[in-house]
Amino acid sequence: MHPEGKMITVETWTEQMVETSFTTSSSFQIWLVTKGRLTVRINGTRVRLDPGMALMLDCGQLTRVERAEDSFHMDVISVDPFDLFSPFLAEQYVTPYIERIGYYVAHSSVPTDKAMLDTIDKAVRRLKSDSAFALLDATLQLAVVWRYWIQRTPVMRQHGYDRMDRMISYIHDHDTMKLSLEDIAAAGGLSRAECCRYFSKWGDTSPLAYVQDVRMQRAARLLCETDLAVAEVANQLGFTSVSHFVQTFKKIHNRTPLAYRKQKT
Length: 265
Hints:
This protein has 265 residues and is of the alpha+beta class. It has ten helices and nine strands.
């Protein structure tokens, strides 16, 4: 279900909103970059998105943003493709393709992609408008995009996806605990050395560095979304020393927790 019960949603992401943790797409998504550049790993493959490019993600794709430029802007459309068609058409044109078409990167320099990018841009503008027919127009435009996409050669998930997904889920489910390399490796059914190779390949990081990144991103959300004192945030994340928490937070976010809260709120 989409926010507020909407069948199609569009959000604007800036460099402040982009998180660097692994995420698994739960719906058909289109990332349309309109300003700045974004470097992202998709199922372990590094891709750079320039202004005017779009990343199309099928359900279940594992992504991790590595870097976003300052003054960055991207529109993200999320939709369940089954909502774009009648049940009869969905049975023919969605069911055989869902979770099998991987991802696709559209370039404005490719003529056929350019036409699709123009259609995506129209969908974004309609969704942001207050027109009575905005949802209808966007649905028709995204149905055209889906038709184009399912004709492309899919870029599939790499071998080892399931193991990586299990390790990431384990980290996110236990981010308040003191996790060891052995714990993470066991979640993926791997040795410690294999676990490190997976994280290096899929996210250009180490398992324990990623744990720290996840915890500090959760800390950032708590600072921005609650009135908890810094000591309480540190305690929720399992830190026994506030000074250690502050040092760790500053290493990730380049500012103290209080300075971060002041800037973001």
